[in-house]
Amino acid sequence: MLLFLPLFAAAGCAGPRHGPMTPLNTARSFGYQESRIGPDQWEVTYFGIVRRLSTDAEQEPQVQSAIQRSRELALWRAAQIALARGRPSFDVEQERVDTRVHRQPGSYRYPLHHYPHHYRHRHLGGYPWGYPYPWGYTYDPPTAHGRAWVTLRVRLRRDSGGRVNARTWQARMRSRYGHEIPPPTKAKTQ
């Protein structure tokens, strides 16, 4: 038993926290992907985080909020690309929104300590002769989880005549999502 304690302690340690503007292959569960499809054309996809949703009528505003957040962060990444290439603005030529909601209905389950033989040993605090606990089944309420992702096809502009001003959009997103960006980690000294 004591051999497993270091494993549980290490499993509980939180790894590096990623901010919203993290590549998908780094954060693994959310982030952006980008690909260059032409000289001044880029395709930017932002995958939002999987979030728990309510299971009643309030679910639709939560999905719309997830779509809006993914769209804003995809535009932020497009603004970063435009500024890195010295372009002051860009146009969104095409936008595709995808959502996935997984609903799990409520269910009853028997407590895990009775599986598979429906008994517990006396030293574990259960009934010694194989009888189940008197309170029986446990109810798991219904749950729903959802995710939104937005794909934008953008064309970078050499002039300021684009529909989206890259500097303005980046400043707006920093003020809105800047608190989610983790502080830089300090290098370990040996």
Please give a structural write-up.
Strand 1 (31-36) and strand 2 form a beta hairpin. The chain is elongated. 26% of the residues lie in helices and 29% in strands. It folds into two domains: 18-105 and 143-180, Gyrase A, domain 2; 107-140, no CATH class. It has helices at residues 5-12, 24-27, 59-84, 166-177, and strands at 31-36, 41-47, 51-53, 89-104, 107-109, 138-140, 143-157, 164-165. The strands form two sheets. Strands 1, 2, 3, 4, 7 and 8 form a six-stranded antiparallel β-sheet that branches. It starts with a helix and ends in a 13-residue tail after the last helix. By secondary structure, the protein is α+β, with helices and mostly antiparallel strands. Helix 3 crosses helix 4 (166-177).
Total domain modules: 2
Please write the CATH class name of the largest domain: Alpha Beta
Distance between the termini: 32 Å
Q: Main β-sheet: number of strands, strand sense, barrel status?
A: 6 strands, antiparallel
Are there runs of 5+ residues with pLDDT below 50, and where?
Answer: 1-15, 115-131
The portion of residues forming beta strands comes to: 25-35%
Q: Which structural class matches the secondary elements?
A: alpha+beta
Helix fraction bin? 25-40%
Question: What series of H and E elements makes up the topology?
Answer: HHEEEHEEEEEH
The number of helical runs is: 4
CATH architecture of the largest domain: 2-Layer Sandwich
**Which whole number gives the mean pLDDT?**
79
Q: Compute the number of strand runs.
A: 8
Described by the principal axes of the CA atoms, the overall outline is: elongated
Rg is 24 Å
Q: What is the CATH topology assignment of the largest domain? A: Gyrase A, domain 2
